[in-house]
Design brief:
- The chain has 365 residues and is an alpha/beta fold.
- It has one domain: Aldolase class I (TIM Barrel, Alpha-Beta Barrel).
- The protein is built from 14 helices and 9 strands.
- It has a 9-stranded mixed β-sheet with strand order 1-2-3-4-5-6-7-8-9.
- α8 packs parallel to α10.
- The termini are far apart.
- Bound molecules: pyridoxal-5'-phosphate and iron/sulfur cluster (SF4).
- The site of pyridoxal-5'-phosphate has 7 residues, from β2.
Length: 365
């Protein structure tokens, strides 16, 4: 944290700073708040207000303290400060690029593989990532209580013996308090054929104080549990974030990382190498590097697929095999996550069916 950053908040103190609920209460959700806290106005001004009414903004004080407002290309600001390009129309971009809404046997439960399902347990996040491929959900209110939303999902999984893994996602499942999270985990864990649970959460990166001793005790009881998070830039690997990951690991839970390849954030070999090495140093396993999907509101983050392939070729030479993620494109529907590198014939054929996913794909031949 930059020195005494907490003093920029009315009830800021070093004690409150460590309280995840305080961090959520004091998030910057409007431009005036952002300007006041960062002591400098973000680019864009007025048009951004309209943008926020469509794609809300929220940034935790913790994540704000990592931004460099003097650098207009700051890779952390780019991930959380609204940008007018989110509203620009671009052919080929859709609200639901993976066709998730069509793969829901019951509301909020996505099944794209026979053996594992993904539960959207909430639409809320601690910090809204501007590159989020589920940003269509941000404005949608959650209908009914957690219990009433959960019941049909749990019933579906109980009645579907082929499902052996349940992924809690969102939104960010760690937005719930410990008791609710315990309830969600045990509802799925008590189904006899569910062998493995997984949590996808960006809390270690944007709200590391959420990883409390009590939370880790709950997680520990539900092993085998796998924890996937999302570091996209080496500057996010702070001592606080490292400690959060370490606590989860000490509970016997492996922590893996899913990055998104983002223009201007991590699309250079130097930055990506430093990110991967940094993750290896904190024992977090790089799992996936996602090619940025054609989601509406995210067009300006997308890179050329050839750039991604060249990047992987460089990383192969420069990084430990333990630090090398799979570079994948998530394709709509049942196709699922397709490894892009090394590029094989069958993969090329699969990709050809989805040319609209990539710019300049023809030139790959
Ligand atoms: C990504 C995803 C999974 C998990 O895929 P893995 O390759 O096992 O990490 C499962 N279900 C859905 C709907 C997904 O999007
Ligand atoms: S934490 Fe995940 S779901 Fe939430 S905004 Fe970021 S990418 Fe989207």
């Amino acid at each position: 944290m930059r020195k005494k950053f907490f003093s920029r908040f009315p009830d800021g103190s070093s004690r409150n700073w460590q309280d995840w609920r305080w961090q959520l209460r004091r998030r910057a959700t409007s431009l005036p708040a952002l300007t006041r806290i960062l002591e400098t106005p973000p680019r864009g001004g007025k048009p951004l207000e309209r943008l926020i009414s469509r794609y809300p903004m929220a940034v935790t004080p913790y994540y704000l303290s990592l931004l460099n407002p003097d650098d207009e290309n700051d890779p952390l600001s780019v991930q959380c400060v609204p940008d007018f390009r989110e509203l620009s129309f671009s052919a080929g971009l859709t609200d639901d690029p993976l066709g998730e809404d069509l793969s829901m046997p019951v509301p909020n439960l996505i099944q794209r593989y026979p053996d594992r399902v993904l539960a959207i347990v909430t639409h809320r996040c601690a910090t809204y990532c501007r590159h989020c491929n589920r940003k269509r959900f941000w404005r949608v209110p959650e209908a009914g209580s957690l219990k009433s939303r959960l019941a049909p999902m749990v019933r579906f999984v109980s009645e579907t013996p082929r499902v052996r893994e349940v992924i809690l996602s969102g939104g960010d499942p760690l937005m719930f308090d410990d008791a609710s999270l315990e309830m969600i985990l045990s509802s799925f864990a008590s189904i006899p054929h569910v062998e493995v649970l997984r949590i996808g959460s960006r809390a270690p990166v944007v709200l590391p104080m959420r990883i409390t001793g009590n939370l880790c005790r709950i997680l520990k009881r539900h092993r085998p549990l796998w924890f996937n998070t999302q570091f996209n830039h080496p500057a996010e690997i702070t001592p606080d974030a490292a400690r959060a990951c370490n606590r989860i690991q000490e509970a016997g839970i492996p922590v893996s990382n899913q990055s998104v390849l983002l223009q201007g954030v991590n699309d250079s070999p130097e930055v990506m190498q430093s990110l991967l090495n940094g993750l290896q140093k904190i024992s977090v396993r790089p799992y996936y590097l996602f090619h940025c999907e054609p989601a509406r509101g995210c067009g300006h983050f997308r890179t050329d697929i050839r750039k991604g392939l060249k990047l992987m070729e460089k990383l192969r030479q420069r990084c430990s095999g333990l630090a090398l993620p799979q570079y994948v494109a998530d394709l709509p529907g049942q196709e699922g996550k397709v490894p892009l590198w090394p590029l094989s014939r069958p993969i090329q054929n699969a990709l050809r069916k989805h040319q609209d996913f990539f710019d300049n794909f023809e030139e790959l031949d």
